[in-house]
Write a structure and sequence with these properties.
By secondary structure, this protein is mainly beta. Helix content is 8%, strand content 38%. It has helices spanning 2-18, 34-38, 193-200, and strands at 40-43, 48-53, 57-58, 67-72, 76-78, 81-84, 89-98, 106-117, 123-125, 142-144, 159-166, 173-175, 180-185, 189-192, 229-231, 243-245, 254-256, 268-270, 286-288, 295-302, 306-308, 311-313, 316-323, 328-335, 338-349, 358-363, 369-375, 381-384. The strands form eight sheets. Strands 10-26-27-28-25-24-23-20 form an eight-stranded antiparallel beta sheet, with no helix packed on it. A hairpin with a 2-residue loop joins strand 24 (328-335) and strand 25 (338-349). The longest helix is centred in the first third of the chain and has 17 residues, at 2-18. The two termini are 66 Å apart.
Length: 390
């Protein structure tokens, strides 16, 4: 009996020694359960992340391929669980750049983002072009429509920002310190919940204080100018009249000519310098939406009846029209010039031109088909319908 009790005691002691100690909960933080650490977090495609630039984009140095540095200015949560805390660093590169001109005082930039670095050092590589996974585990899979070429599976830029900036061509800054832009996640972002929880336990970053502008422009005050300088001229002389000496009877008068009048000299005027106006600095760059967003009209065909956002479409040829590249946009579907459906869609930017017009279908549980996406020949964008997420 004594031997049995000692064996039970040693077994309990060994089990307790092998249990890893739990980290203490920090004040003000909710404890992280084991299940929360083990599970992952999926931030859905279409999520926008507010960023603030930590380094300016100068007009003289901006170029395609140039680096962009920012940090998250607002937290992102998924299902009431923190996914991307404030103060996480984000790095990206410039894909396209349109500079401001005298007649077009605006700039446009397309930026793709390459990584997110959390406060605890957890780094998420966003990687190169990927496919948009719009289904959850166990859901129906996407399949190409019959007799249509398969859509490119890896042509979607994972995270991107399209930035329209009101800025003068005289400005030395295209995007200043602290400028806020929106990063759009075009594919689902998968995160390690334990690493995110560890990053959240780091000291909270200080609230964003107004950052000093990076511009080196200083207003140039105008000058009042100088008045004209006047040098008076010399006055003229009136001259003297002739002197007449009457002659004796029978003799002529004797005339002694007078002196003629002399003209004076005019004033000499030395003109002063004109005044110069103040030269102010151009206004700061301001990120805004494009007031003249391009209107798009693209064709597509379907050889079978399909649904789009729950609305039925018969087999046939159609056109889709919409304005701007969203990401969220209203799409009108036309047939023979007549509106047959109006739906919401997400415009997704691609890293290369699509080789053909390609509708991508999803098979529903009742074996019917739903239109999931449209790619268009020669274009670097696609439309996605019935997407999960925001």
């Amino acid at each position: 009996m004594r031997i049995l009790m000692m064996a039970v005691f040693l077994t309990a002691f060994t089990s307790e020694a092998q249990t890893p100690p739990q980290p203490p909960d920090l004040p003000g933080r909710a404890p992280v359960t084991g299940s929360a650490v083990r599970t992952g977090i999926i931030v859905p495609a279409g999520t926008t992340v507010a960023l603030a630039l930590t380094s300016p984009i100068m007009a003289s140095a901006a170029k395609v391929g140039g680096s962009v540095y920012a940090e998250t200015a607002f937290p992102v949560a998924v299902n009431n669980q923190m996914a991307i805390p404030v103060g996480s660093y984000v790095q990206g590169r410039i894909d396209t750049l349109t500079r401001p001109g005298w007649l077009s005082p605006h700039a446009q930039l397309q930026i793709h983002f390459t990584k997110i670095i959390f406060a605890n050092g957890y780094t998420v590589e966003l990687g190169g072009p990927q496919s948009v996974n719009t289904t959850q585990p166990g859901a129906e899979q996407s399949t190409p429509a019959p007799e249509t070429p398969a859509a490119a599976a890896d042509d979607v830029i994972p995270a991107v920002a399209n930035v329209y900036v009101l800025v003068s061509s005289r400005s030395d800054v295209l995007l200043d310190n602290g400028t806020q832009v929106e990063m759009v996640l075009q594919v689902p972002l998968r995160l390690n919940a334990g690493q995110v929880a560890a990053a959240q336990r780091q000291p909270s970053p200080a609230a964003f204080a107004p950052l000093k502008s990076a511009t080196r422009c200083r207003p140039i005050p105008g000058s009042p100018g100088t008045p004209d300088t006047v040098i008076p001229g010399t006055p003229g002389s009136p001259g003297t009249p002739p002197t007449v000496i009457p002659g004796a009877p029978g003799t002529p008068d004797i005339v002694i000519p007078g002196t003629p009048a002399t003209p004076g000299t005019p004033d000499t005027v030395i003109h002063g310098s004109p005044s110069t106006p103040d030269i102010p600095c151009p206004g700061p760059p301001a990120v805004t939406s494009n007031p003249k967003a391009q209107e798009y009209r693209e064709p597509f065909q379907t050889g079978v009846p399909v649904q789009v956002s729950g609305k039925p479409l018969a087999a046939g040829s159609y056109q889709v029209t919409w304005k701007g590249l969203g990401p969220r946009t209203q799409v009108d579907i036309l047939q023979n010039g007549k509106l047959v459906a109006g739906v919401r869609a997400r415009a997704v930017l691609l890293d290369r031109k699509s080789p053909a017009d390609t509708p991508e279908m999803r098979t529903n549980s009742d074996s019917s088909l739903s239109l999931q996406s449209l790619r268009f020949a020669g274009q670097t964008f696609a439309l996605y319908f019935d997407l999960t997420g925001p």
